[in-house]
């Protein structure tokens, strides 16, 4: 240290910028399923065995651990005790063994290595945990780097508009209002710090539970290293073992908690525009659906329904009698969904504003002034949704819209949070953070999720005994338990149709399955061909909504002429026929965490040809979809996973493990059904509940072998299912060269409205001679399917135990 020109010169500032690392471990402690390792420089690692397959790693620098708190994982989430747990100290490391994993912690530097019980290395630290102090914020930049395993693929991370495999890319999580984004835009609206890793045909996941701005480098900077880091908070991550990709997502989704079941109507078709007004325009849209026999369950109102864009108000000129209007729409089967943004207009005559102001519910800057920003109403203040009192107040505001007026759903937008010109809040804005106070740096990524949480509580409270429906643009891990979502302000382009497919798959495997895109594109206007191709894809997405910016033209299904209207109606009608299959798939998601949309690698990770495929995906257990994403074509090549598949439109059987050509003019989307599947169909309805379902159609696809299917039913509304009022019907198909058996096992006491099944038989390799249901002969007839095929079918009691179909080998044509 020297003195020069009256300034003290030293190297402390430069040394502060250097990366710091753990020292030698000097102490280890075990308390139940938790382990604490302390280093000579006071760095600590808390390793928690959450289950046999999930390990949590939480690091503290010299300041020690902060109180343990997470918005991603519910406080009441129970820990599952490991079936087996062993802790041993070795000369140079500690070893923790569960029934499924072996984890070693190096004494020299806390480096972690994780293996499966057969000894295969799953994950190994490179630099491991390290950090760098940021003098500007006072936070530590906490970092983790791991070695890249040979042939590794990375998936997940939410709504990133990129190729399915993330290897070679770098991303940031900082929820942003990204109007008209394109492929490669980053960041977008959602912040889901969870990814999956696949190598040597074994999968695991990493969930980095840190709400600060976070970065993920998947071997982009260095080909042999993958890293994740955040500009504050803790290095706190979960290692989640599969060994299958599907199991990884299931474990993660259960950890962060899947949603409750939605009302069945929420899985129908929704129509939205910025904006439908006045009332006469909305009524005209409603009439347009019913007159043209295009099924639709929900209509949306964007910001123009409000009085001067003030949340929780109605425009007296556009919608003078909302309660009457909503009742009239409901009589024709329409449910109304309205938008609510976080910005509350600064207006002393506006009760929502004055209530929040009086109770100090708005966010404040570091020195005390209220956070002010311009959004649609003009200058606004913004509620601090990280405070329980604010969420309770906010939820109470929905009484008027939901309970009194009859609105059935709420749509949260602009909740990244977005602010005109500035982008978002300044970093110094303060948040309560449920008693763990922090700045906007800490709260930004969970603001939208906490707004959706408060909204969901209000909609649920005032919708009872009906189920709630909410939708959000921004969220964080765990946000799936509060809301559905869409992929934001996309563009009417073929590239965005391709992106919609990828983003919805990626969100689904990232724990957020109840998702869709703005059909046709929000920005600009599609032509009829693009719109129909988009409807065809979205019919297989859990959330199915057309939405557009009104200044770019109309985007109702009939807006492109009669030819395209007929085609759009065709695919929307198919969605309504498939609702029992879609609802069952949602039940699997809600109970097991199983992703509703599954990329090819999730179907067969032992087949390396699936690893880089992106277009093809499965909806549920048995449907394989591959959209057409280029104009002017009459089909496409696509990859079929191993096994036998039927082309839905023709019943042609194909063998998987290879590329096949799927012929698909505008009236088709490449759609295959797994051999042995039982696919339930409703009768066609214009809206959920229009008709009493007296007979359910079961499309049964022959397989030489066995295949299982499931059908879940609880009526699609109310909470009786939580008290056991539901039915799970498990089907097993078993085929031989001259017979097919369909067995049914029924669990639960719920009595659905249907009393019979029409069983339609696909792909029988023999000439049918007789059919028996529970040993009693049943007469077969011919059934014409929606696709124009004439197939054998029988009508049987819905409570049957076994249907046996027998025949004789089909005659071989003479040559």
UniProtKB/TrEMBL annotation:
Residues 593-679 form the Glycosyl hydrolase family 31 C-terminal domain. It holds the Pfam family Gal_mutarotas_2. This is Alpha-glucosidase. InterPro entries: DUF5110, Gal_mutarotase_sf_dom, GH, Glyco_hydro_31_AS, Glyco_hydro_31_C, Glyco_hydro_31_N_dom, Glyco_hydro_31_TIM, Glyco_hydro_b. Residues 695-763 form the DUF5110 domain. It comes from Hymenobacter cavernae. The keyword Hydrolase applies. Keywords: Glycosidase, Hydrolase. Belongs to the glycosyl hydrolase 31 family. Residues 45-217 form the Glycoside hydrolase family 31 N-terminal domain. Residues 259-584 form the Glycoside hydrolase family 31 TIM barrel domain. It comes from the Bacteria.
